[in-house]
């Protein structure tokens, strides 16, 4: 009771605050998403995501080397194809940008954790995450294509494959394909609770994946549902997921907490493009303090229960945390 109990005693200095701090964000908690494109000498800034670039493999290597110097230990690769078709066939082309990038990175940085996004939306002409017939996104026929893609990434050297499509049963099909190819050590990071969010717009500009008809609400989760997230996560774990993800992060901190409390498994959270771009725009206009805001956002995600955070702020945050 006051005046004996005074919580401010332990807030008087940075040293005291650091000593009793409950939540810590480290550079090793961060995963750096990168966009790989065909060609050479391509370093093209993404308009809606300032400071992020389309990178050809020769430009990817120095970018990752710089990220490693900042303390980043893991990257997530998204690929942009030379051409798109109805099946997204470049997704599983062994000579495509992602597969080429994985081989180059593992050759140059064998200790780096390389994660690859497994989805079709960047590769399909219609922009949906699965095969389409008569205006409908087909679940079961898409599974073999996703498994084929994941296997192509694993054969290139990916440490972790990350299916983000939200097709039912895809984790099990990918696990079966990997194990059948003698790649039981390749882990699966499942986008287990991926919501049909308004915060993906800048990313869709980056990869040209805006659907040509309809939207993704028939397969991505309803933002109003939290109990359903536990069902999705449980199913993916039963099918063989090693890490589960909640996406986006900031509007779903409660879901992150519930997933961590319910399952006690490694949980990832994606600080998505719209969250990044909002913060960048507000800071550019002088409305918020950029550096403090970045660390506050990441701390909130970690405090909610995330073990790892995929974020476009990764390099800047790592430097701030050093």
Structure, explained:
This protein is of the alpha/beta class and 322 residues long. It has one domain (22-321): TIM Barrel. Helix content is 39%, strand content 18%. Helix 7 packs across helix 8 (253-263) and helix 8 (253-263) runs parallel beside helix 10. The protein is globular. It starts with 13 loop residues before the first helix and ends with a helix. The relative contact order is 0.14.
Brief rundown of the structure:
With 322 residues, this protein is of the alpha/beta class. The chain is built from eleven helices and twelve strands. Helix content is 39%, strand content 18%.
Question: How is the secondary structure organized here?
Answer:
Blueprint: H1 14-19, E1 30-36, E2 43-45, E3 53-55, H2 57-70, E4 74-79, H3 97-108, E5 113-118, E6 131-133, E7 136-138, H4 140-156, E8 160-163, H5 170-180, E9 187-194, H6 201-207, H7 227-239, E10 243-247, H8 253-263, E11 267-271, H9 273-284, H10 290-304, E12 308-311, H11 314-321
Parallel strand pairs: 1-3, 1-4, 1-12, 4-5, 5-8, 8-9, 9-10, 10-11, 11-12
Antiparallel strand pairs: 2-3, 6-7
């Amino acid at each position: 009771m006051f005046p004996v109990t005074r919580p401010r005693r332990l807030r008087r200095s940075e040293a005291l605050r650091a000593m009793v701090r409950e939540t810590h964000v480290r550079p090793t908690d961060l995963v750096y998403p990168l966009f790989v494109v065909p060609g050479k000498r391509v370093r093209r800034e993404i308009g809606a995501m300032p400071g992020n670039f389309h990178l050809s493999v020769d430009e990817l290597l120095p970018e990752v080397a710089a990220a490693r110097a900042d303390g980043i230990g893991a990257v997530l690769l998204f690929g942009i194809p030379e051409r798109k078709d109805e099946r997204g066939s470049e997704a599983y082309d062994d000579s495509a940008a992602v597969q080429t990038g994985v081989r180059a990175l593992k050759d140059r940085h064998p200790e780096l954790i390389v994660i690859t996004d497994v989805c079709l939306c960047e590769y399909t002409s219609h922009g949906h995450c699965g095969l389409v017939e008569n205006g409908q996104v087909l679940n079961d026929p898409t599974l073999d294509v996703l498994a084929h893609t994941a296997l192509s990434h694993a054969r290139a050297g990916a440490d972790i494959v990350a299916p983000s499509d939200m097709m039912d049963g895809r984790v099990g099909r990918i696990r079966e394909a990997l194990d059948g190819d003698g790649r039981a050590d390749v882990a699966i990071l499942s986008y287990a609770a991926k919501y049909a969010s308004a915060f993906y717009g800048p990313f869709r500009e980056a990869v040209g994946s805006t659907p040509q008809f309809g939207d993704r609400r028939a397969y991505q989760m309803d933002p109003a549902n939290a109990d359903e997230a536990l069902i999705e996560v449980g199913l993916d774990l039963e099918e063989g997921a090693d890490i589960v993800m909640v996406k986006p992060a900031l509007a779903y901190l409660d879901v992150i907490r519930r997933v961590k409390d319910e399952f006690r498994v490694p949980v990832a959270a994606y600080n998505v493009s719209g969250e990044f771009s909002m913060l960048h725009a507000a800071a550019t206009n002088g409305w918020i303090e950029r550096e403090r805001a970045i660390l506050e956002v990441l701390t909130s995600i970690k405090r909610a229960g995330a073990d790892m955070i995929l974020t476009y702020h990764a390099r800047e945050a790592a430097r701030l945390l050093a």
